[in-house]
Design brief:
eight-stranded parallel β-barrel; about 30% helix; single chain; 13 helices
Length: about 450
């Protein structure tokens, strides 16, 4: 039987369309993807309550400097290194290879034009010669909560090691931290479109009550962080056992880095306004008395715990003042030979998942013993999970929210899938710092 030419033409068009459709739906794309998630909202999505946040990348639109630098782009996530020196192109190349995009404090000898030329950013404690658009924020100071204490007494202008700090001079009761913060903030350029940032320490985390710590967190900054180096700090563990009632062995856990973020988020909410909270993670032995370095898997777990608990950026403490290999450039030299690959790996994951991380988290209780963060992006749900403070290595079962369709659960960056049955799936966590990132696609 002879088929009319118009029908043959129509059949050819339909076959071609089917081929194109199949190719497009098999093309790898999207964050952490081997197979792309469908675009648009997931069908029959459950009604989940959003977790309070500062607004994600849109927050940086409030400040002309960060807006002009592109920090409002959902594909950008701040990853910084503490107190570096940038002199040569090789310095920048090593930092960029490690996944760094922001310098949080710099030496006065640093080449700001070189930083700017390479599309990197800086947050500095004062204007450095030649500074410009690369400088996106001002650092007020570091750890005034610890060395000056909570209080409005007079400040001598001295920093630790330079002489008496507060007026009156009582070495057992330093109480001029609020004065320090206000004075140093007033010295920075005014009304230039740059947000203000400060880093705090054990004062805010351990020693002070909510009223005292809340003033540090809420009264001076637009960006804030808190450093306690749980894996390495000898004195932090002693303080935590005495003040936070940590049990022996509870200190050296990745979940404690998430605890730092929780503490800041709770304090930050006291004034009804939220700001981005950054994580601080060590890459060596920060203090001379530290008895051990951070291990590569621990470093990655510390970063992921911080992200799961709501960190909106990551800063690496790049100095190692203890142990046999001491350096102020750990991620550039031989002292970082073990931890640098871990930094590169977790930063690569952050960069790839930045569009996901920059969405508002959804509240759902996945049970005791596990810390989780649930996100929705591009038609899929993303579940970040690892052992929590009250958990440890072992097997965990995740029961998905009612109404969340789960046709496929992929474990990103591990090249595997886990089966789903009855709206739940099970997976194993080898150590306390092990984490998995699941993409749940209808």
């Amino acid at each position: 039987m002879r088929v009319p030419r118009p029908l043959l033409a129509l059949a050819a068009v339909l076959v071609a369309a089917a081929v194109v459709w199949a190719v497009l739906n098999l093309r790898p794309a999207g964050p952490g993807a081997e197979n792309p998630p469908p675009t648009g909202p997931a069908p029959a999505a459950p009604a989940l309550k959003p977790v309070d946040w500062e607004g994600g990348p849109a927050y940086y639109g409030r400040f002309p400097a960060t807006a002009a630098a592109g920090w409002t782009d959902p594909s950008f996530f701040p990853v910084g290194v503490w107190y570096e020196s940038v002199i040569t192109q090789d310095d920048v190349d090593k930092d960029r290879e490690a996944g760094i995009n922001t310098y949080v404090e710099l030496t006065e000898t640093s080449d700001m034009a070189l930083i700017r030329k390479n599309g990197m950013f800086a947050i500095t404690g004062k204007p450095i010669g030649g500074y410009g658009a690369e400088t996106v924020a001002w650092l007020i100071t570091d750890e005034a909560d610890m060395w000056a204490g909570p209080g409005d007494d007079g400040w001598t202008g001295n920093f630790p090691g330079q002489g008496p700090l507060c007026v009156p001079d009582d070495p057992h009761k330093e109480r001029c931290g609020y004065t320090v913060m206000k004075t140093l903030k007033d010295r920075l350029p005014k009304n230039d479109g740059r947000p203000h940032y400060a880093n705090y320490g054990k004062g805010v985390m351990i020693w002070q009550n909510d009223r005292q710590a809340g003033r540090f967190v809420n009264d001076y900054t637009d960006l804030v962080s808190l450093d306690v180096y749980w894996y390495t700090s000898y004195y932090a563990c002693l303080d935590a056992q005495n003040s936070l009632k940590f049990r022996a062995g509870q200190c050296t856990r990745a979940a404690n880095y998430g605890l730092l973020i929780d503490r800041q988020r709770r304090l930050d909410a006291l004034d009804g306004k939220r700001q981005p909270i950054y994580a601080f993670v060590e890459v060596g032995r920060p203090a001379p008395e530290d008895k051990r370095p951070i291990e590569p898997a621990e470093l990655k777990g510390a970063v992921m715990s911080s992200l799961i608990h709501g960190a909106r950026g990551v800063v690496y403490f790049n100095h190692s003042f203890g142990g046999p290999c001491q350096s102020q450039h750990v991620l550039r030299d031989a002292c970082g030979v073990r931890t640098r690959p871990a930094v590169i790996e977790v930063n690569r994951q952050i960069k790839e998942l930045a569009p996901v991380l920059n969405t508002q988290s959804l509240a759902h209780d996945f049970g005791k013993g596990v810390d989780t963060m649930l996100k929705r992006y591009g038609g899929s749900f993303y579940l970040f999970a690892m052992p929590g403070l009250d958990g440890g290595p072992g097997t965990r079962t995740f029961t998905l929210p009612p109404g969340l369709p789960a046709g496929r659960v992929e474990v990103l960056f591990e090249n595997r899938r886990v089966p789903v049955s009855g709206g739940a799936f099970t997976d194993a966590f080898a150590t306390e710092s092990t984490y998995h990132i699941y993409r749940i696609t209808p």
